[in-house]
Amino acid sequence: MNELFPIFLKLDRLNTLVVGGGNVALEKASALLRNSPAAQVTLVAPMFRPDTLEFLADYPQVVLCERGFELADLDGRDLVICATDNRELHEMINETCAARHLLCNVADTPDLCDFYLGSIVQKGDLKIAISTNGKSPTLAKRIRAFLEDVIPEEIQEGLEGMEAVRKTLKGDFQEKIRVLNELTKGVIFRK
Ligand SMILES: C[C@@]1(CC(=O)O)c2cc3[nH]c(cc4nc(cc5[nH]c(cc(n2)[C@H]1CCC(=O)O)[C@@](C)(CC(=O)O)[C@@H]5CCC(=O)O)C(CC(=O)O)=C4CCC(=O)O)c(CCC(=O)O)c3CC(=O)O
Ligand SMILES: NC(=O)C1=CN([C@@H]2O[C@H](COP(=O)(O)OP(=O)(O)OC[C@H]3O[C@@H](n4cnc5c(N)ncnc54)[C@H](O)[C@@H]3O)[C@@H](O)[C@H]2O)C=CC1
């Protein structure tokens, strides 16, 4: 059983630190910023790869610190993602995060993670996060591609229509639920 609890974070209101500036850091930073383009992200690393710098150039709010990690880098953070090639550093950061009640993800090291990143399907306002409980990120990627394929682009019109109806419904909560259930009965996934 997958016991992970999924939530959807507002990364523009949180402060995220990515430790590292190489390939894996780019993967994690792009997962953050493609989902939340206004995410407040700081990266710290003595070396940033050109691909990383090129990607981050589109996000002017992102802060880069070109030096090794320092403990003070954890001050004021909400989330920390470790993506260097230094396992001991990751262990130290992970322990410090635990002591400070900071949520920490260590790329490719499930044992040191408080949370995992998921595979994300995006269609307008619809977002689906997929987790395989760490069993197979590759299978998660395949499932994402499948869902991207089968969910129609028109889902956005459906969502906007429902939002409009929802705003017009006044009064009794139970009645509201009844009307909304009725309206969505025949939508896409007919049983
Ligand atoms: C536990 C977790 C922790 C975390 O990193 O958050 C984790 C752990 C590990 N990943 C590894 C490898 C790969 N990861 C990917 C890809 C993704 N990995 C992601 C998440 C997660 N990866 C979390 C679990 C998510 C879940 O439950 O499903 C995704 C979904 C999200 C993201 O990272 O943005 C993103 C797909 C995004 C997309 O495209 O949809 C690929 C495929 C590829 O790149 O093509 C490979 C190579 C092939 C393979 O191994 O499958 C290894 C072995 C490293 C080694 O061999 O050294 C470990 C460590 C281990 O398993 O022990
Ligand atoms: N590239 C990949 O897709 C995969 C990588 N890995 C492993 O993940 C690790 C990272 O891989 P890459 O990102 O490709 O390496 P990389 O060499 O591209 O990046 C490593 C980054 O860590 C930074 N770093 C090193 N010491 C630091 C410190 N004290 N403080 C802050 N930053 C520091 C470096 O400056 C660099 O930016 C490696 O151990 C690699 O074996 C595992 C599976 C796949």
Automatic annotation (TrEMBL):
Residues 124-149 form the Siroheme synthase central domain. The keyword Oxidoreductase applies. Keywords: NAD, Oxidoreductase, Porphyrin biosynthesis. Its EC number is 1.3.1.76. It catalyses: precorrin-2 + NAD(+) = sirohydrochlorin + NADH + 2 H(+). InterPro entries: Met8-like, NAD(P)-bd_dom_sf, Sirohaem_synthase_central, Sirohaem_synthase_N. It holds the Pfam family NAD_binding_7. Pathway: Porphyrin-containing compound metabolism; siroheme biosynthesis; sirohydrochlorin from precorrin-2: step 1/1. PANTHER family: SIROHEME BIOSYNTHESIS PROTEIN MET8. This is precorrin-2 dehydrogenase. It comes from Aquirufa avitistagni.
